[in-house]
Amino acid sequence: MLTVHSIGKRYAGEQTVEAVKNVSLDLQEGRSLAIVGRSGSGKSTLLGMIGGISRPTSGQVLIDGVDQWKLNDSGRADLRNQKLGFVFQFASLLPSLRAVDNVALPCLISGSIPAREAYARAHALLDRVGLSHRYDSFPGQLSGGEQRRVAIARALVNSPRLLLADEPTADLDEATESEILNLLIDIHRALNVTLVMVTHNPDIAARADHFIEMRAGETVSRRDTSPTASKPAEIETVTSLYEVSPEKAAAEKVRLGEGLEVFVGRMVMWIVPICVIAWCLNWAVADYERSEIQAKAQRRMALEELAMQGLRADVKSVEFGKGKTYVVTLYLRNTKGDEPLYVMSPMVRGFVQVGTSWLEVPMKSLESGSAQVLKVTGTQILKFEMEPDVPDFTQLLPYYMHVRLTNDMLISPRSQPKDDLVERNDSYYVYLKPHDADDNAILGKMKFPGKPPVWIPMPPH
Amino acid sequence: MSRVFSRRKILGVAALGAAGMVFGRKLLSQAGEGIGKWNAGGIGSNELQASTEIVNAGNLKQSFEQLGQYIYLTPQKLGGGTHAVDLNSGRTLAWISYWNYGDSCPISHHLAAYPSPDPYKGFEFLNSTQGGDNVMIYGLPTRIKERGLTGKWGMGNHIYRVQFDGQSMNLMEDIAETTGIGLGVHTTIYPDASGFAGADGQKDVCAFFNRAVGTEKTQVQMAFRADWIGANPNGGMEENWSKGGKIRLTRLNAAKETGRYELEGTKGNKIDWEMVPMAEYLVYTGQLPGDNPKGLSGLDAVVHHPSGRYSALIIRMLSCAIIIDRHNWEPVCCLHCPEGSPGNLAVTKVSSGPDTWEIKLDDVKCVGHEAGFSPDGKSFLMMNNIKQNNMAVFDTADADPRNWKKITYVKDPTWSGDYPSPFHLCFSVDGSKMFVSVLYPKPANSGCCVVDTKTWKIIKKFQNIGPDCQTMAVTYDGKYVFQIFSGFQRMSSGAFIFTQDTLEPVGYLPNFGGHHDCVIVPTKVEQLKNSRCTTL
Asked: Which one of A120, B64, B486, B508 is most buried, by most CB atoms within 10 A?
């Protein structure tokens, strides 16, 4: 089961210390070994190297023929978990977990058996170490001896084949120490588990199958007793500790191990409806906002269509005015008819082409006391006076001025608009006959069916 | 507390809420459909109700993936050229600009393409340019006139024959220069692709040409001029037409000395610039200068019956169409389109030297504009505009045009007053639908509508497409319709695309220039009945 071959441990430093020197031993399955010696003799170091805690600087440790120090960290951890049980000098229980949780924990971590089965096994082991009444006690509520019992049960829960105990009664009184060590020996025998135990107690050591005494890292004496006959009936009985019936497992209440599933399950139970509600709210808000945006865009388009197609505007006529002025008549026509349109008093400006530019000319409204906002239901007439006194205008048509009229309007279907207001910018182009132009001269260049007109409109095309 | 807000209750309420919203939405949409159906069936079960779709350009971002293996040809109007776009890739394959050939004021106006079995390897098209002075009616602060660019080489009225050779466009011929006939408006190819017709409403002249190929020169097959002789010439200008009169159709002959006609450039113009929509008013008011506005009939276009024998001369000022038999080049009858006017008028030959015919009109109730034949040749339609806004529908199934009858009108309640007005038209490939552009004045966006050709009712309207919707074209696989809009030469332009069958908006095709026409190059002769041949 266990073979230690010329194992040694050297600590390098200013002074090299050889904690263990060339120790060899061979232990068959089901046998026990007691390691005794004074403090600092290398007992615990040797046990640590056997248990895979401390790497030897020389030699080999074979467990079932496997050199654990040739395994990687993960493989070594698996080996420790599956084949070794360790009882330390101190109980080293997790204070926030109950006794049964502490015992079941190695199984839960390894996942070797289901959580309910691990708890059933923990309960059985606690029964076995005499703590059937302390399942739910926390370590702080247990005596030192009870804590050691829990630690022994924890070391056994993964059904190890090799149990290592490093002075498991270090701080206990004599009676308790004896009680615990006896328990270990009993369990070793009952479960047929191989036991390596470091102890000061010579009586206990005497009960082991093998005995070695260490001094300054070396074995100074050995003793081999004849193997104790096994007790098959007892072994069978105790082996059943690890055989948990499905009914018993199903009845177990699990606190650890299944917690993640429970936690996740609870989270799902809460998060799913919360997410559904949040998604529904988000969807509803998004849908509402989308519909609002679309509705707003539709209203805007309808408004623009109303402003563009519902209102016709153009030059109705241009006539000679006083002096060199012209009277320009514009019309605004509501083509929808049944609903009024409101137009802020149009800002009409006049320009005459000079070269390739438009030169603005004076233009003023002839409407007296005109309202700021026009209500257009049918056709609205607006008159302006323009005075294009521009000597060097460009003549696209002989003698005629090329004139651009701009008309900037704010249009709304309501008299007091809020956001339902559209700006429309029109341009109208006309040719104007100068006041002093000679009709005969014009007719010499262009033909008209009658007298040359004062103005020639360009169609709104 | 936990009883009030148990997890089970919350979960249940959430699930119910979610289910309620989903089903509620579904129910609402179904209810909406139901209401729509109820309305459609409830308001006059015999009438088709037009659904209106206000086109939102922002929602149509090139949702199409592929428009088919077609070449889409568009003139750039004031841009001075034409470009060909591969609809399969969106590339411009080639373009031409007539400035580069010595035309100092090219206004690339209308076009028509001959069929080509593989347009990607080559095709030919005809492209008219407007009279050069038309550059002055759009409000451009230009000095083009002052600098003489509308003079000898910028008069316009060219008919360019252009070849795409698979790589570039090549100007093959200026047919106006070859023949002496300069016509600046519509060009329409014969249904058998053996030639084409051109017309010009400033001159009231139309001409028919053979098809020249490659370096050959085009020849005139026949030419006519249509003059108006008002019954009341001394009254007001408008009465010159409204009180009736006579159309005098004259066969034009080439000068014996030169073999050419004397109609190149601005020669023969009755008015100084074209009658854009609404410009008929300027003729009425005497504000449109020219040598002979009172004699104006507005012979602006020719469309061909799909059978190939007859062509219709479109007379705008009188809203009529003179039917010409191209077998003997004589007029057969005249379709008079205004509502309340007789539908089919007789043509009387009054002289043989030169051949002259007259058609008497008792009155003229309105002007007309674009027109066309259905692909099966059984219908003819023409727009009545300004004083009437509708489309006259003629049954043209009879083999003898003298038996063609006006049967109904396409109308819309919104087509009242002078605007909006139906403008250009074309038909779906299967002939079941007619597409009509609907014009609004600047700066409003125009639209188009779809007419069911069995009932001649409007079944769908697209509004807010873009400013100045002009001609339309259909892909010959029956999938798409292209509605071009020119933006009044100064505003946004492009092509709006929708499906022929489901009438769903598809997207916009970007283009440059202010388009006035669009043609998809046919690959077969029979596709001409859906191209710039039968309709405008």
From this structure: B486
Whether A277 contacts chain B with CB within 8 A: yes
Judge whether A429 is closer than 8 Å to chain B, CB to CB: yes
Identify the burial level of A250 via C-beta atoms within 10 angstroms of its C-beta, where 0-12 means exposed, 13-18 middle and 19 or more buried. Answer: exposed
Select from B16, B135, B137, B438 the residue whose CB has the most chain A CBs within 10 Å, as the one to mutate to test that interface.
Answer: B137
**pLDDT tens track for A244-284:** 777 777 777 777 766 677 778 888 999 999 999 999 999 99
Residues of B in contact with A313 (CB under 8 A): none
Q: How far is CA A316 from CA A111, A456, B225, B259, in A?
A: 95, 11, 34, 48
For chain A, domains (ranges, CATH) are: 2-249 (3.40.50.300), 310-457 (2.60.40)
Instruction: Please give the pLDDT value at position A208.
Output: 84
**Contact assessment for residue B396 and residue B378, using Cβ atoms and an 8 Å cutoff:** yes
Paired strand residues for B359 = B247
Determine contact, residues B191/B211, Cβ cutoff 8 Å. no
Interface of B with A in 83-122 (CB under 8 A): none
**CB-CB under 8 Å, A356 with B139:** no
- Neighbouring C-beta atoms of residue A421, cutoff 10 Å: 15
Q: What is the pLDDT of residues B76-105, one digit of tens each?
A: 999 999 999 999 888 899 999 999 999 999
Give the pLDDT band (50/70/90) at residue A29: confident
Given a cut of 90, whether residue B218 has pLDDT beyond it is yes
d(Cα A8, Cα A25) in Å, to the nearest integer? 12
CB contact under 8 A, A456 and B287: yes
Chain A segment 284-343 residues within 8 A of B by beta carbon are 284, 297-298, 301-302, 304-305, 308-309, 312, 314, 335
User: Which residues are CB-neighbours of B402 under 8 A, at least 6 positions away?
Assistant: B332, B333, B344, B346
Looking at residue A240, its pLDDT comes to 61
Looking at chain A, which residue has its C-alpha nearest residue B277?
A: A461
Q: Average per-residue pLDDT in chain A?
A: 87
All structural domains of chain B = 47-530 (2.130.10.10)
Inter-axis angle of helices A99-110 and A144-156, nearest 10: 20
- Residues pairing with A318 in the sheet: A328
Residue with tokens 């109007």: B77
Whole-number CA gyration radius for chain A: 53
